[in-house]
Model the fold of this input.
Amino acid sequence: MKIALFSQSLFALSLEDAIRTTAEVGFEAIELACVEPHLDHDTAVKHPAAIARQIRDAGLNVAALSLFNNFTEPADAHQVEMAKAFIALAPLFQTKLLKLTPGPPASRDAEERQWHHLADALDELVPAARKTGVRLAFETHMRQLTDTLASSERFLALAPADCVGLTVDFSNLSFAGEDMSQVISRLGSRIYHTHVKNGWVDAQGRWHFGPLDTGLTDYARVLSLLQAAGYGGYLSIECLGPDARTDPAGTARRDLARLQRYLQDAGGQA
Done:
């Protein structure tokens, strides 16, 4: 298993500073958030080669290009074209993974038409991904169609296994009350990528995020399960707590050290 930093953790910094900081803190790879203030579509179209060169010069790999999508409404059909644009850019960034989100609402509130719109989007995206050699990893995301284990399995049934899988966010699924042994055993080889953060839900149902070793997700157990399952992809740290805004580099460094210790204990690469 390899460790990356999701650049959303560094939204307090410009893209240039986020790339530099990711390398200085000690990460081997960066997951590029494809929205402002980082690699938004306009920046990606105008300056992709310069940004890709900066990443290489920093000694970093690109774990994934990370999009925030809504494929559940016909009015958002332009997002399919946006995703295709980033699929085409993936080779320049020397990555074969595009992280996407399906879109709201939460699965319990979803109508059949929203699942159909998502399936229609996949019908357009899959040929583009196959042509470019890119895999599409849809995030298990709170208040979206893939917010539970069951709804994530329903999503996977819509898509071919050769190029469509999941970015499993363990904390998001912990918020949904899922058991990680079931998550990892049932999703198996369709886990293309992961997001690693931690937090808890208060009595009012609000989410709170903090250090990687504080919250509902037991990462010592998660990494042991992933190791046993043979997962060899990226563990992409996502720092979302208030400390990520006030001390982005320090927060990323803290969670990297904790994850490295978990990996060592699980017998994985640290």
Summary: The domain at 2-266 is CATH 3.20.20.150 (TIM Barrel). The mean pLDDT is 96.
